[in-house]
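About this split. The held-out portion is used to measure sequence recovery: a designer receives only the structure tokens and must propose an amino acid at every position. Recovery is the fraction of positions where the proposal matches the reference. Here is one held-out target exactly as it appears in the evaluation file.
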């Protein structure tokens, strides 16, 4: 996937004006222990996903995302980080 295809995916979460300030982004999750114990069946209602955004000045920002957004971003995160690293925005 090339850079123009990534623009609508990541621009909805991170404004394009901030891309020049980014170092990298990554997907993370946090399990809520209480919900994990009472969850029914095979449903992951206890898992909270977020996008960890690291800026060039080492500032870290965590943006909460849904599971469907996570699935869409997971396929493109490596390409986006390569785009950030290789392009002078």
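Reference sequence for scoring:
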């Amino acid at each position: 996937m090339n850079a123009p295809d990534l623009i609508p995916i990541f621009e909805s979460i991170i404004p394009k004006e901030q891309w020049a300030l980014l170092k990298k982004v990554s997907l993370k999750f946090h399990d809520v222990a209480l919900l994990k114990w009472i969850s029914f069946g095979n449903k992951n209602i206890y898992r909270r996903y977020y996008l960890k955004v690291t800026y060039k000045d080492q500032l870290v920002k965590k943006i909460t995302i849904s599971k469907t957004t996570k699935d869409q971003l997971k396929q493109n995160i490596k390409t986006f980080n390569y785009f950030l690293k290789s392009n002078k925005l």
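Annotator remark: The longest strand covers residues 22-31.
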